[in-house]
């Protein structure tokens, strides 16, 4: 960033916003993360919050194949605003891994978080490792110093703990295998060992394109959960392009009975893969999946999406349509009178996030006309001022505080002053007027060309 950039004439922010708003659709909530390409969603509920673990497609694809080095995590208490907790670990946490940080799942047990992750080994071949942490956002370390499981097609683990405390790990492409995990979560029952499911049409549906001699529809990416004493196995099916399907059982060990398609192959901006995740949060069931919906998106640049749905009365899962609107109803209002991380975002354009040891995750590469939307902010009886922690070498950037839409009523403007450089942080404030009750809030960024400032957190002060 430099001052010369700010002196150049800026494209009016309002014009850019009109263009962006038309492109994105202001009600869009899918894909749920706009600052990175994310895939293979693995939601987990802990302490009343949702933690969304994702794999991460790099912005630059190498050799026209999955280019994936780390896993990211996001949290939310309302299912519409997602706080970026950063890249919580890389494949390098496993000394023995060569790369290919594909689809994993994290689970909480006895004060620790166990994250089951597929990678390729330095000496070749697929393997599943387990990383452990005291906190949902890491730091994670290799729990074993070696893989938990090694075998051809050993990818995409899903983990589940039943009400009797027995834990299960399922995984695999194009077969589905499982083990019974021991209570330590880092070893498994050697007596039963690794069990392969019956990959028959009756168990996992029928596909036209045979794999060797088998015709079962199951492909990869299993997701296991229990509801009302029924066990559900969701999975991508059919070969590429994948649709989502499911089977059920009366036991977490099967036998699995094929039920139906959950989501057809996504026609409009789908990726050739898909990957299910599921939670019920505050009484509402949600299906997580991925598409290629962000600008520049594709099969190796995917994005996580969410659809709320209702089970049918008989416990079956309806056909779920992928939508742009996604989660339309916030599960809880957001309190603006406590510090809110700037990377808490319902929708954004023209910004990225970054992280470092001193600051953690922050919003960066903020451009003129970019904006962040925060949904269902409860201003109660009203606010008098706004403060934000900023770092920049520039004078002249602005945060325009709009409500309801990016061009809705302006309740205040923070004129950003230089803090010396873009790693020196200072709290800057402005007055606000004319705001009370619940509104969507927009930070609309204004300034010259190029990156304007870095943004760590914000809060309002009440009347
Ligand atoms: O993200 C890489 C691979 O693509 C995953 O492991 C599969 O489930 C598919 O989504």
Q: Can you walk me through this structure?
A:
With 463 residues, the chain is mainly beta. It has two domains: 3-25 and 332-462, Sandwich (Jelly Rolls); 37-308, 5 Propeller (Tachylectin-2, Chain A), CATH 2.115.10. The protein has helices spanning 3-7, 13-24, 201-204; strands at 37-46, 49-57, 70-76, 82-90, 97-99, 105-109, 112-121, 126-133, 141-142, 149-150, 158-161, 167-171, 177-181, 195-196, 206-211, 214-216, 223-227, 230-237, 243-249, 257-263, 277-281, 284-291, 303-308, 340-341, 344-345, 347-349, 352-356, 360-364, 371-378, 383-391, 398-403, 410-415, 426-431, 438-446, 454-462. The longest helix has 12 residues, at 13-24. Bound molecules: beta-L-arabinofuranose.
* SS class: mainly beta
What is the rounded distance between the termini? 36 Å
- Determine the mean pLDDT: 94
Report the CATH topology name of the largest domain.
Tachylectin-2, Chain A
Poorly predicted residue ranges = 1-25
Query: What is the annotated CATH architecture of the largest domain?
Result: 5 Propeller
Largest sheet: 6 strands, antiparallel
The CATH class of the largest domain is: Mainly Beta
Number of helices: 3
| Count of domain modules | 2
Which small-molecule species are bound to the chains here?
beta-L-arabinofuranose
CATH superfamily of the largest domain: Glycosyl hydrolase domain, family 43
Strand-residue proportion: 35-45%
**So what's the overall shape?**
globular
- SS elements, strand count: 35
Summarize the amount of helix as a percent range.
Answer: under 10%
Rg result? 23 Å
